[in-house]
């Protein structure tokens, strides 16, 4: 058959992970004519409602991963904490797994990730492997510092800030590394896509504001309110970082802009990223469509920003755990430019990501004000109060 002619479905896409990222990826895949098989520990995961098949399994079961990969034309993932050994074995046999499990193996180990980036000449904060939990090691590295678990951390978990020797009770007694505490002016991010031909595109630089209590992205502003030279440098560094990994797909590159105007790489995610959700409404090609294009050998789409946008995460309210109740939805949706995304998780809990809202407006400051208003109005609670 002519390679330029596609049958239906276009391809069978296997997705490891059925959370919100898997759901949004599946929604776009179904829109484009793909067949979707999702693997997740829960048969009621968010992606289940938009998948053609669901394989119920944890992310480390080699037999179930093999089943998914063998059923799929291309396998990808929306979560990093998965069995790379099993995936490498399948990849080495010629199965199409993208981004490659070798790339994922580097990303999974945050210390190795930092080492690879440093070896490539990319700017990263000063770091060192934790060789001892004795106070002398931390003192010799220098306070203030950030200790990060090499594996398993996400959404602020596995990360502690140690300001001085009096904060030593916070130490993580696990395999970890320390990093110089960076005096940050802004936290930035860039979504970068690379396809099988080596073509690379980047999205606009975004500005991230974090919820200090939960250490989770709270508000994202695009375009970032930075000078043109900072924007250009951030894109250049993000693209080089992805090219260093030599893999295929969409990558979220998180960056620090320091008070002395330097850009440092914080970390990279080898998948669609929270900082790219705004692309669904605000860009010609969403990060989810771009990921599918990249891993399926299709031309990369335009990353043009159609409008300034602000995204806020909808987190489960403190003091509530149980079946979610959405408060303030009608009032929030009466605001022009608001798009509401609910992930379909059956249970809410404090600071759990339950959905997000994107606000688009031709006036950036007006978009920010609207987003702040939505944040005040829209709450995810439940009938059951805790604590």
TrEMBL record:
It catalyses: 5-amino-1-(5-phospho-beta-D-ribosyl)imidazole + hydrogencarbonate + ATP = 5-carboxyamino-1-(5-phospho-D-ribosyl)imidazole + ADP + phosphate + 2 H(+). The keyword Signal does not apply. Pathway: Purine metabolism; IMP biosynthesis via de novo pathway; 5-amino-1-(5-phospho-D-ribosyl)imidazole-4-carboxylate from 5-amino-1-(5-phospho-D-ribosyl)imidazole (N5-CAIR route): step 1/2. Its EC number is 6.3.4.18. This is N5-carboxyaminoimidazole ribonucleotide synthase. Residues 114-296 form the ATP-grasp domain. Keywords: ATP-binding, Ligase, Nucleotide-binding, Purine biosynthesis. ATP binds at residues 110, 148, 179-182, 187, 266-267. Belongs to the PurK/PurT family. One of its GO terms (molecular function) is 5-(carboxyamino)imidazole ribonucleotide synthase activity. Catalyzes the ATP-dependent conversion of 5-aminoimidazole ribonucleotide (AIR) and HCO(3)- to N5-carboxyaminoimidazole ribonucleotide (N5-CAIR). Gene3D superfamilies: 3.40.50.20, ATP-grasp fold, A domain, ATP-grasp fold, B domain. It is an enzyme of class 6 (ligase). Pfam families: ATP-grasp, PurK_C, RS_preATP-grasp-like. Homodimer.
């Amino acid at each position: 058959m002519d390679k330029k002619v596609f049958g239906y479905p276009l391809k069978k896409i296997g997705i490891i992970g059925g959370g919100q990222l898997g759901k949004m990826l599946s929604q776009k895949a179904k829109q484009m004519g793909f067949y979707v098989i999702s693997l997740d520990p829960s048969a009621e995961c968010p992606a289940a409602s938009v998948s053609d098949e669901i394989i119920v399994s944890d992310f480390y079961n080699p037999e179930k991963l093999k089943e998914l990969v063998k059923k799929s034309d291309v396998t990808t993932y929306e979560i990093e904490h998965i069995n790379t050994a099993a995936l490498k074995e399948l990849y080495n046999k010629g199965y199409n797994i993208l981004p490659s499990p070798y790339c994922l193996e580097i990303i999974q180990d945050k210390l190795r990730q930092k080492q690879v980036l440093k070896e490539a000449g990319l700017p990263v904060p000063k770091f060192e492997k934790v060789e001892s939990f004795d106070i002398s090691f931390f003192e010799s590295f220098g306070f203030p510092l950030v200790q990060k678990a090499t594996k398993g951390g996400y959404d602020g978990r596995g990360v502690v800030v140690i300001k001085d020797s009096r904060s030593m009770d916070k130490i993580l007694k696990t395999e970890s590394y320390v990093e110089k505490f960076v005096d940050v002016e802004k936290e930035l991010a860039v979504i970068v896509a690379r396809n099988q031909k080596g073509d690379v595109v980047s999205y606009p630089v975004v500005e991230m504001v974090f919820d200090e209590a939960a250490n989770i992205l709270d508000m994202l502003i695009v375009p970032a309110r930075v000078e043109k030279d900072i924007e250009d440098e951030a894109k250049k560094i993000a693209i080089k970082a992805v090219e260093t990994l030599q893999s295929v797909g969409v990558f979220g590159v998180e960056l620090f802009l320091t008070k002395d105007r330097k850009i440092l790489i914080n970390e990279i995610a080898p998948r669609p990223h929270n900082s790219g959700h705004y692309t669904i409404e605000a860009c010609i090609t969403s990060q989810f469509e771009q990921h599918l294009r990249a891993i399926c050998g299709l031309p990369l789409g335009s990353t043009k920003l159609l409008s300034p946008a602000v995204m806020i995460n909808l987190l489960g309210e403190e003091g509530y755990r149980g079946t979610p109740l959405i408060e303030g939805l009608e009032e929030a949706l009466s605001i022009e430019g608001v798009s509401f995304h609910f992930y379909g998780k059956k249970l809410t809990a404090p600071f759990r990501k339950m959905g997000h809202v994107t606000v688009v407006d031709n006036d950036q400051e007006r978009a920010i004000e609207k987003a702040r208003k939505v944040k005040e109005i829209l709450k995810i609670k439940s009938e059951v109060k805790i604590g």
